Structure formats: structure tokens, C-alpha cells
What does this fold into?
Amino acid sequence: MKERLYELKRQALEQIGQARDLKALNDVRVAYLGKKGPITEVLRGMGALPPEERPKIGALANEVREAIQQALEAKQAKLEQEEVERKLAAEAIDVTLPGRPVSLGNPHPLTRVIEEIEDLFIGMGYTVAEGPEVETDYYNFEALNLPKGHPARDMQDSFYITEEILLRTHTSPMQARTMEKHRGRGPVKIICPGKVYRRDTDDATHSHQFTQIEGLVVDRNIRMSDLKGTLREFARKLFGEGRDIRFRPSFFPFTEPSVEVDVSCFRCEGRGCGVCKGTGWIEILGAGMVHPNVLEMAGFDSKTYTGFAFGMGPERIAMLKYGIDDIRHFYQNDLRFLRQFLRV
It folds into this structure.
């Protein structure tokens, strides 16, 4: 019995050493240590041995089985390490090869213009105020001197959700909200960028969703001359140092007096061209002095405080600046269009 155990050990260790992969090694494990293997058979046949030999043969059988098990584990670890090394060799990276170029995106032209305008006014000391796109009727209309029954409240012009809730039609509600937070104490100096919504038919110059940037300054002794100086500086920074502006009388419910603001044409220098339609001037925004009713509803004493407000459409400015003839290009995600602005 002893000789058989020693021979089994020798054969098992020899086959373990010859195994070239994990499958072959597992076959050796099953052959020698499995339920039907020779080691198990020896242990089962110990009942036929004389009582005095059983302890010796049992101890030897366990010793042989332990030696085979240790050899299997050592060989398995070696084969697994060799497999890892083969995979690493096959997947080796040549660090001297040139990298694959990564296609980078670029800011959307509309985003570019909005950020440029924001940076310009932040440089003048303004802060950016943002608010909800789903707005109450009060802040969208009443707080801005648009009482019940005003044409701007027509269901055909605005996206109403309920009688008192709608998608904001301008970013002016943030002006009213900000003035309320100041509790009648100036100064207030903000710009309000964001998306707005109106019931409009989409075409080359109109969209049911577009962006606005509005500005507001409230303090003691604010005059129309302050408004003009601010907008002249804005026009020169955005369209070039040689630009001038002009005011034309207009009407907005929340400002009095109100003006339309034109900038001298940056394409023809005022001589007349297709961009300015031969006039030498391009309309870019609306503005005016904050209506006393708006100040009073926000908690400001209109006899002590005055202010000016202005509003512009970044889409129009981007169209003028980049020569874009259709507002729908901004929203159609056409890569052929967007790639034109990689180096603008």
C-alpha cells in the first residue's frame, strides 16, 4: 500500500509539472483528488488493512494528498501569471505612436454671443439674475405695469398653463423680483438672460422660443443720459469702437419715456447697405426709463429713485454679427452650420 501511494505521488507531481494550461491542470486534479481518484480508493480500502497499519497508511495517504494539492496550487498560480503576461504582451501599447486626434466641439454661436454680452456688462459692475421660465401672471404682467385686459395678455400671444401661470414672455419678471428683494433700497444693477416663449409662427425671423437679455439699473439720480452712455459703450464693445447709437421714441408699458435703440451700421459705416436696408442704422434693442408705477409696485419711492431698463434679443445680434439669415439655424443642430463657428 505504501509503495502505491508513493507511486501515485510521483505520477501526480510529474503530470502537474507537464501541464501547459489550466484545463490540463484541472484534469490532473480530478484524476488524482476526485471522488473516484486513486487516493480516495486507498482511503476507502483501509478497512481491509490490519488495525496496527491503518494509522500509518492513513497518515501517509493524507501526506500524499496534501503534497499533490500544494503542487496543484503552485502550478495554478504560475499558469495564471503566465496568462496575464501573455495578455499584457499582446495588448502592449507603443507610446511612441502618435495619438488619435480628438474631435473637439465649440460654443454654439448663440451661447457665444450671450456670454460675450454677459461678460461686457459684468465688467460694468452688473450682476446676473436668473429666474423661473414658468412664471406667475403677476410678475410677468401686473408688476410690470401691464394690467388685466392689456393686449399682451391675449391667449393668442402667450402660453398660459392656468389663468395665473404661464411660460414667461420676457425676462423682465426677474427685474420685478429683484427689486422686491431690495425692499425699496438701491442700488440695483442687473442683467437678466434667459429663454422666453411666445405664441408665434416659426419662420426666418420668428420663433416660439428664443432668448432675451434685459438690464435694469435703479438708484438715486439715474438719468436718460446714463442709459445712453451705457448703451453706447455696449455697442462699441460689441460691434466696434467706431459705432454710435441713436434713440427713436417708442412705447413700452414698463418704461416712460421709451425708446428704440439703433446702432450705426458696422458693415457700411453708415453709407447704406443691405444689412441696414440703406439707412445706415440697425435696430438692436428697446429701452427706457423705468415707469414710476413699476418702481412703486416693487416697493421703491419713485420720487427718490429712478432707473433705466433695456432689453435685447441675442438671436438678432448674433444674426447681425455673423451674417446669419435664418433664426431657425440656431435650433436645428445642423453640424454643417455649427462647424462654421469653430474659429470665429
In short: The chain has two domains: 2-90, 109-341. The radius of gyration is 41 Å.
